[in-house]
Amino acid sequence: MNSRVTMGLAGFFLVGAIIAGYWGLTLSRQPAPDPVTPPNAVATAPVPAPAPVDDPTRQPVVVLLRDVAPFVQITAADVTLEKLRTAPAGSLTRLDQAIGRTPWRALTAGTWLNAESFEAGSALSRMIRPDERALAVAVDEVINAGGQLSPGDYVDVMLFLRADANNVQPSAQVVIPALRVLGVGEQLGLTNDGRPAKPVRSNEEQLKQDPQRTNARSVVLAVPESLLSRLMLATQAGVLRLAVRSAEEKRLAQYWAGENDSNAHLARADRDLVQFSQLALVGPPKALTLGSTAPRKSGVEVIRGNQISQQTP
């Protein structure tokens, strides 16, 4: 009797569970009721996002997206337009001004393009003006101001002459004042368009430049064309030193502004030359070669240009 009652109750609960599950499943499938709109509410359309407005203070500039090798034509995938508040002078402003053109030198990613980007010439030749020449001078740690010279510095070229048959006493003098340093070793400064002649791409390259500058064996100077001979004579005549001038003179800023006061300094240096009138580049030379010790013969000395001859009357 008890087992039958128990089985009956179990069956009853089973049927109840099935009915409850079916009912719950039916309720879950019913659609959600529509939201009730208040009678006074007004339907509003979604507000579209405002269209971007170009900033009139920014100007388009053509910039390289990736490195371009020399003599490789620039494609549309190589360039893009960037809006800058201050556009570099002479920079290209449309993509069609760059696409299809071929540079003569390697251009790095991130470089803004101008007409000079497609002109021939090395980085060094673009660091000087037409009336200047770039001339390398051999240096060591002493001549190189202790390895502390940097591109953009200004130096006086000093010459020490030892006493010999042509120099009664030793002398030291400023041969050429205020020459601009273009490069120290492999490190170069800025080109005339204000861009680095050799852009540094990574921090590792930046860290390598300091020891290379300290151990440099040559310094490149911007020399006025008329003074090339003077500097060449000085390098062969005695011992050179490069004396660094103060940055407070603002010579580099004056150079970028187009100012030139080298003539006044050169005239003062000419007056201060000691026992080396050949360096002044004025008047006829006093001897055929520097350091010549040949004794003069008796007779009449005849000078024809740079040649000196003796004739016996």
From TrEMBL:
Question: Which SMART domains does the entry link to?
Answer: SAF
One Pfam family named in its UniProt record = RcpC
Q: Where is this region: Disordered?
A: 192-213
Cite the record's Basic and acidic residues compositional bias ranges. 201-211
InterPro entries in the cross-refs: Pilus_assmbl_Flp-typ_CpaB, RcpC_dom, SAF
The coiled-coil regions, if any, are none
Record domain SAF: where: 59-119
Gene3D superfamilies, per database record: Antifreeze-like/N-acetylneuraminic acid synthase C-terminal domain
Protein name, per record: Pilus assembly protein CpaB
